[in-house]
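Check my protein:
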Amino acid sequence: MAKTEREPTADELEAMGLQADWADISTGLRKDLGAQLHSQWIKPIQLGGLCKDTGTLDLFLPTDFSANWVADRFADRLSLAWKIARGDIRNVRIQVHPGRRELSELRLGEENKHTPSNDHALDSSAIALASGQVGTLGQGSVGLDPSQTFESFVTGNANVLACNAAQRMAATETPQFSPLYLKGATGQGKTHLLHAIGHTYLANHPRARIFYCSAERFMVEFVQALRQNEMIEFKARLRGFDLLLVDDIQFIIGKASAQEELLYTIDALLAEGKRLIFAADRAPQALDGVEPRLLSRLSMGLVADIAAADIDLRRTILEARLKRFAPLEVPGDVIEFLARTITRNIRELVGGLNKLIAYAQLTGQAVSLQLAEEQLTDILSANRRRITIDEIQRTVCQFYRVDRTEMSSRRRARAVVRPRQVAMYLSKVLTPRSYPEIGRKFGGRDHSTVIHAVRLIEDLRKRDADMDGDVRSLLRQLES
């Protein structure tokens, strides 16, 4: 007698539906984030249960480090994706898989520690109005990151104006300008400054109510209130905040009704002397599809640029970050290599360092230049500008004021030999060319000559401050 197949239960059908939705969401995130980020942070996510009463879906990761990382960087994106996929999901909770807590955790200094002085930043009573249940506006799930403070923000020429302006907005004194609009490319520190403002403002005004969200989050809450005929409550709650922090404002473009509500909110808060800070990847005038009245409000205060970090700032950021991993030793040549090579944004720079250290700790290997080159291939490839040996020779000749032909000549005068050796050294550092290939570009010299030049300049940089200064200056010129 044939065995009949058992019909799946309601819970099993629900689980299969969630898995199917997650497959679609994961595929979309892979396209948005790229294969490397997706494989490292999104793919390990496991689905938990869905609480029908609260509409909360649990997402599990294997360690505290990975759970905190995903929550910090992808919580809003994951929440929005699930809300679009399923109407019964209102919140997403990212946490460590309860069955995997026994796994050895990465020891990353203070990266994941929430000290008592910072815990209040995540208290929903500090960032939400006490009344009203519209959506999740201002709930603790979109709270402030305790690690992103002014103390942990490294300043340089590229961001000092924005940092000083942000500190003024968080001070007890009334700022001379409002709103503050932070403009900078992805990963340059805008979000860090928003969180830092929130922390300092709460420290100075313990009873204050603040609202931090991304523009996408604002849109989700707005649409939910609109669908539930609760716009009056939505407006009342939004305008009850003392400090409004909105990230990635460029994503609100084209949403006429939401733009109008944000415009009225800005006017109401400014009239009451409240503080507003916005962040975007472009200037207000470059936002397409924005209503002129909203555009004028966004640019009426101070627009503070955050430029791309130069090599000195990148180096300082890495050195500051390393203090969190003490007593772990990271050689100076690795820091120099990362600072020179990962130039697109600070988030990738710090992420590269985190990945390298995590890999070294998990495998028991020592951090080295070779390990960095092997494990950060994708990040390094994406950041490398294709600098040619011809470009290096031309720049070195201009710097030392020697004729270009001297790069290939047989002259051995010191005024010619030293620039030639510097050019060989830079060719090895900045290009993927082998020693023989470099030798051929310098008048057909033997590979041993190139090796000697590279080692000599490396040694001189350690002993001679003038030589080190020359090389640093040339590196800045070539990498700019």
